[in-house]
Structures are given as structure tokens and as C-alpha cells.
Amino acid sequence: MAMMTTTTTFFHPLLPANTCKSGAVSSSFVSVPRSSSLQFRSLVSDSTSICGRSKFTGKNRRVSVTVSAAATNEPLTVLVTGAGGRTGQIVYKKLKERSDQFVARGLVRTKESKEKINGEDEVFIGDIRDPAAIAPAVEGIDALVILTSAVPQMKPGFDPSKGGRPEFFFEDGAYPEQVDWIGQKNQIDAAKAAGVKQIVLVGSMGGTNINHPLNSIGNANILVWKRKAEQYLADSGIPYTIIRAGGLQDKEGGIRELLVGKDDELLETETRTIARADVAEVCVQALQLEEAKFKALDLASKPEGTGTPTKDFKALFAQVTTKF
Predict the structure, then answer these.
(1) What's the burial of 205, exposed, middle or buried (CB within 10 Å: 0-12/13-18/19+)?
(2) What residues are labeled active site?
(3) 150 closest CA partner among 85, 205, 230
């Protein structure tokens, strides 16, 4: 645990000039500002010293008290939006499991989603398209992890036995423009107003290509709107980490070598997928490492059984040089 030293000044009527007194000191003589990041030792301490260092002011003398203090790492309060989604659930669970490091909150769309993740008072129900619904969830948080996304629905009547591909659509009011742009913008604005210190935003690779197949789903240009929200975050002034994940897989995490890239270069390789659990772990690690801030990265992994499973996330983020 790191040690810190702080000095406060007060007026003491009895202490002679230019002398020091070591030993027990009554805390009633001193007013030390409280700090959320410092936990001060009792002033009644053999290591505490008071030194008179200035001229009399009437009958009082100004003296300084130097107090050693231990820096404590209080848990970060982190809100996960989209906590009911397949990746969001994993992030929320990881934060809950590391209660010595994080106080987890969640934001979901429905009561059913809240029940699915066994949410209690720390899980809020709200619509990210409504700024007023977001405000209670972000109040008092340190960091925000955005995992919300528009989700296409398959058109009814598709018969896989007949071949062909299914068609998809977005429900009214749940198009990428409303969810991935306006909804994410609302979250960023609410977080900024609440004084949030960091935002981790999970998006998708492919945004550099306007003709990417994902943009054709429902003719809704989902990657275009995701990219617009990412740019808005990068311009917000809030420390951020933008994670553009490859094809998401429901597989075990922590057993593959992770790869970072930029500008969709990984899409030109054979390593274009990643387990949701690995994306979730990168989100959690980004909350703890300075190397992750003000960076945007593409994320994929080598196939299981090749390479060395990634354990050093500081080194992983250090590879990233792109801000957008």
C-alpha cells in the first residue's frame, strides 16, 4: 500500500516558536480535510510531529502538522448498460465477482432482464433513448461500460430447409439510429454531467467499410451509427476506451491469445472472431489500466490451442497507439 504525507496548518497557543513536538497530539487541535482516496491514521501517534514555523499572531502561533497517510484504493462504482445482453451479463458478473475492486451496477430494458441477472436495487430499468431514464443509474458512478446495441429480428416465415438466407428487420423505434447513436449519445451526455471518470464502449469491427454486410441488415447502416457514437465519445473529453470486437462467439474465455489492431486490418486475416467472455475481460481490465485510456482498438483472438493465452493486459493495451 502506498504511503502519502499531508501537511495541515493550524494555530496553537502554547507551542514555542521554532520547536517541534513529537508524540501524542490531540486530534481536537487539528482539522484535516477528508478525502475519499485517503484514510488518515489517528493523529494520536508516536510518529506524528508538530512544528512551530512562523511568527506569533496575537497569542496564537501557526504550526504545521505532517501526517503520514496510507492511500487506499476504494472500489470503483461501475455501471454496465445493456447488462441483460449476452456480453453485458458477463461483464456485470465479472464486476460482481471482484467486489474488492468494483461496485457493480446495471441498466436493463425490462423487468425480465433484471430478473435474468438476479438484479436487485443495483440494477436499474430504463430506456436509453430517454435521457431522464438514464440519470438515476449514472448518479455517483465512477465509470460506465456501454454494451447497448440495436438487435435485428428475423422476419417470420423463413424455412431453412428451403435454402436461402433469412431476412432481418428492426422494430419501429429500435433502429440503430435510435439505439446506437441517440441512445449511446444520451448515455455519454448523462455520464459527463455526472462527472464520470471513464467510459468503455464496445462496438464492432467493420466501421471503415460503408458496404460492410452488417450495414445492409434492415438497410439500417448499423455500423455507421455505431461509428458516429464512437466519434462523439472520443470528442467528449472523457477518458475512454473504444473496443471494436470481431465476430462474437459464446465460448469459454481466458484460453486464447488476444489480438489488437486498427482500421479493420484484422478483418483481412483469418483471426476475425473473439469469445464474448474475452471481450468482457478486456472491458474490466480497461477500467484498471492507464494504458487503456484515450484509445480505440479492434479486438480478436487466435484460435484456441495456438499462441499463448493473454494474461498481461497492460502489455496488450500498450500495443495500441490509435485514439480513434
Answers:
(1) buried
(2) 204
(3) 85
Q: How far apart are CA 26 and CA 45, in angstroms?
A: 10
Per-residue pLDDT of the chain (324 residues; tens, 9 = 90+): 444 444 444 444 444 444 444 333 333 333 334 333 333 333 333 333 333 444 434 444 444 444 333 445 799 999 999 999 999 999 999 999 999 999 999 999 999 999 999 999 999 999 999 999 999 999 999 999 999 999 999 988 888 788 788 889 999 999 999 999 999 999 999 999 999 999 999 999 999 999 999 999 999 999 999 999 999 999 999 999 999 999 999 999 999 999 999 999 999 999 999 999 999 999 999 999 999 999 999 999 999 999 999 999 999 999 999 999
Integer Cα distance of 237 and 189 in angstroms: 11
Three cell numbers at 187? 448515455
Q: Position of cell 460506465?
A: 144
Q: What pTM was computed for the model?
A: 0.78
